[in-house]
Amino acid sequence: MLRYLPFLLVLALWIYAFIDCLNTPEEEVRGLPKVVWVIIILLFGEVLVGPIAWLVAGRNRGVPAGGSTPSEWHRNHRTAFVAPDDNPEFLKSIKAENRKDEALLKDWEADLRRREEELRRREERTGSDDES
């Protein structure tokens, strides 16, 4: 089993680099066009030259365009957890859904009463036709 481990690691790195290259926006790719990087990764993946070249030189690994990394943003924008029972927006959304459900139920009940009334009328007509 251990003899397959190097092959699996190479395959995993190859797949990771390929998917990373495909998902990277064109403006974040350095050196070569994105299509060329994809070809390099695919052609030289077995010997790890392509994936390692992509990871080292292909992608701009600097600070994102927003100016801060996600972890910095989360450190600066902490929010306190609010339980659903204490969250007024959540409670409003539940009330709105309840109103919609009640209106739908009323419509269904009215439709059911109308259909039952139509069935009674039909039965009365067929009953009176049978008697004549």
The parts where pLDDT drops under 50 for at least 5 residues are: none
Summed up, the helix count is: 5
| Overall radius of gyration | 33 Å
Helix and strand string, N-terminal first?
HHHHH
* Mean pLDDT reading: 84
In words, what does this structure look like?
There is one protein chain. The protein is mainly alpha-helical and 132 residues long. It has helices at 5-23, 34-43, 49-58, 70-76, 88-131. Helix 1 (5-23) runs antiparallel to helix 2. The model has no long low-confidence stretch (mean pLDDT 84).
Topology:
Elements: H1 5-23, H2 34-43, H3 49-58, H4 70-76, H5 88-131
Helix pairs in contact: 1-2, 1-3, 2-3
Summarize the structure.
The protein has helices spanning 5-23, 34-43, 49-58, 70-76, 88-131.
